[in-house]
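User:
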Amino acid sequence: MRPERIAAAFKWACLAELDAPKPGNVHVFAAGHRMTADEFVASAEAAAAPLSAEGTRVGTRILGAVEATFAAIGANTNLGIILLCAPLAAAADAETSDLRTSLINVLQALDTEDADLAFRAIVRAAPAGLGHSARHDVFEPATVNLLQAMTEAADRDRVARQYATNFADVFDLGLPLLEAAIRQHVNLKWATLATYLGFLSAFPDSHILRKYGAQTAEEVRRTAATFQASLSVTKHPVQILPELLDWDAELKAHGINPGTSADLTVATLFAQRLQIILPSERNGG
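Assistant: Predicted structure:
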């Protein structure tokens, strides 16, 4: 049952993230960046099985999920999600009920084959801003393990940074944000939005930084902080929805997508779900 439950948790996290009106990112309220919510649903369905395949290495999960996504929709919708969720899925596959301890063990065990497979997946997905690097170029065979390669990129890419910090943003920022927001709002849609805005206001989104530079990323961060403050005090989040969707439309009109914050939100939802289901699964529940 474990792979099926991990796959179900992954799909649940992807769908929950789509259900929240995340400014600048694709969601059920509005498409964007030539992508629709239906394409993200299809991507989640396609990626879930290879991502959750029992006993497989992280690199195999990453490449399999990217290839399955392309087979389903012919585009890169979820590379960052896959890069974040593959180690979490592998950690959930281990014989321990402590997800973060298991994750640390998974990250420490990554090798050059994992790096080669992940590099192939990244080249296949061809994310915006991908170029050649003087060290650990994804277009070349890996000479270091995947943890070392991600650590090299950690200063410029927040997804890579998670590998270097044992997913600190997910466990130390995202999960507390999500759990507090669930207590406040109950409705998962608003709790997910609060988590997304929490990431987006905590640091400049690295996807925006890569495409548009520090000034634009900082402007988005400051606006996100304003919306996060409003959401944190309102008893009726729907009241701020029109203004939120106006900002959403403005960001999309300029091609600005806080994709890294969205990816971190999915990873947080996935980790939260795994922490709920795995102790039950191992106890025969």
